Fold these 2 entries.
Entry 1:
Amino acid sequence: MHAYLKLDHIDKTFTRGNATTEVLKEINLTIEKGEYVSIIGHSGCGKSTLLNIVAGLTGATTGGVLLENREVNSPGPDRAVVFQNHSLLPWLTVYENVKLGVDKVFASTKTRAERDAWVMHNLNLVQMAHAREKRPSEISGGMKQRVGIARALAMEPKVLLLDEPFGALDALTRAHLQDSVMALHQKLGNTILMITHDVDEAVLLSDRIVMMTNGPSARIGEVLEVPLTRPRKRLELATNPAYLKCRQRVLEFLYERHRFVEAA
Ligand SMILES: Nc1ncnc2c1ncn2[C@@H]1O[C@H](COP(=O)(O)OP(=O)(O)OP(=O)(O)O)[C@@H](O)[C@H]1O
């Protein structure tokens, strides 16, 4: 397989005083260009830590991350992150929030007019152009996440990192936003690494689901291919045997691991 993004023998240990906790152990994962990969696992197993290592926000204790064969050591616009709780600047408008990233990345390659058009193009992609003059406090949670996604996409990242991007939303808004992200992935062909707790979300959106064992020393327990063609329609999938089989497999994995920990 062509390794676009490679997580190579990653271990992560946190030390506080005399106490050391090994959070991640021997994480190996290869992601192809254009793939949508989800990471699922119980709370506290180290999913966010792993995403932060890929983002360059935290260093691995051993091993590392390669993007197009180059080692990742710090945050960069080639790996844009969308967090669960939007991280828009409250004093800037929707337009200005997206513009900030665009100005940084394209300062020398796009003219002012091109940058303006690019901001609007990305706001249009997430259907938020109408709210360009609004501030974050004036729009809903789902809208804020849309703007966060526009801001990330506008940087033209090689990899889009989604840390439970729909986690704080109500079920309907969540479904709408999942559909939007699926449509964007279809249209733009982004490489996406997403953390989720939600089994249905993982199956609906992903090409592969990475299932993590419980921490400490969490590992990749299993990787499941989702053999569903795209575009995917949530209503049709509800009765699709391949969908139900994947869902069952992930539930079994999480349930068995969960029981294992309780018994230990
Ligand atoms: N900076 C840190 N210092 C010490 N321990 C940390 C630090 N960051 C995370 N941890 C520990 O690492 C473990 C994994 O945390 P992490 O947030 O990555 O898990 P998670 O799977 O994303 O959890 P959740 O699903 O609840 O968000 C936890 O036990 C946490 O307490």
Entry 2:
Amino acid sequence: MITFEGVTKRYTGGTVALDDVSLECPTGRITVFVGTSGGGKTTALRTINRMVEPTSGRVLIDGKDVRERKPAELRRGIGYVIQHAGLFPHRTILDNIATVPYLLSWNKKKARARALELMERVGLDPAMGKRYPFQLSGGQQQRVGVARALAADPPIMLMDEPFSAVDPVVRAELQDEFLRLQEELHKTIVFVTHDIDEAIKLGDRIAVFQTGGKLVQIDSPENLLAHPADDFVAGFIGQNRGIRTLSFAETSALRLSDDAVRAASADAAQAAGAEWVLVVDDDRRPLGWARPAQATGPLGKAKLSPVGPTFQVGGDSVRTALDAAVLSPSGLAVGVDEAGAVVGTASGTDLLAVPTHGRDAAVPDRSGQPGEPERPADPEETDAGGAG
Ligand SMILES: Nc1ncnc2c1ncn2[C@@H]1O[C@H](COP(=O)(O)OP(=O)(O)OP(=O)(O)O)[C@@H](O)[C@H]1O
């Protein structure tokens, strides 16, 4: 656990970059610092590895003040990833990744073996190990940056806008892989971004900073969307807040209907009265939508409109299901199981009846105390105290 206790940072010249910030970054979780430019996010991040010393207040790792540790020793237990990756241009990719192992005096063979293992882990072809950074794309360089930060297996990772310099498609890929990696590694991660969508996608906890270094709210993504603490946070989250809340509503609680589902062998006459029916094969896989009134004989032989997007029951959110309903010719979303077989259909009204945080009476948590974990993780897994 990383703890900020009343941390203030006043730079020479008088700028207050952090104003009495108290918060906790739980072990094994991703805490995202988000907010306006100049809000003090980077300053806050850097107080953790002593690149910035607070004017007053304390930063603790597992209860121990970071000032009790020598910066070099402290930083060996804290991976650091920055925008544009910050790779050494004249070192090969392998040697870039092995930077910290070399500093820790690992022998060259072991350090390179570790670097190769990490290349695979972050989705890089190990054959690229002999290249130099300029011979890699921006997205590949960022992966190297992540691999380099992970090389000595630090329990803590600080990430300062690590995915900002790449295009949106690559960025989404990097984010997905980062989340997959975190599911395996359970690092204690503090992640700085300008982008509220990135914060909501990646964060277990989100801390919103306002210009002047004030922490305005720290909360789960669900609560932040449903209950912004004030107009600043609401404005920062932006439009479509209600719809975005549906990303956190589960489809497992949905009651799906079988009324509109028909076998391909069923006769159109049996479905008379229904405007649309979903035609399925023997394994209940969806074949398409049919209008019984315009068909004769088996529905499988009728003119079918494409099924369009479906949603996986229990796997996808209500937002995905609502998207499927909007895009469906019938206005009904098709829910499938893991094998792709149709479980049933739901209308937009059915979908909006699912309880969400946006409609419950939960009170936002502004205390800085972590609430119930949003993502399962083994709290025993990480030992930040072993840093260095
Ligand atoms: N070394 C420094 N000396 C003086 N002022 C600084 C220094 N570093 C940062 N600041 C000021 O402190 C404030 C907070 O800066 P910081 O970089 O922490 O904000 P940020 O939220 O990370 O901003 P951005 O999103 O634009 O990167 C800003 O007003 C900045 O100009």
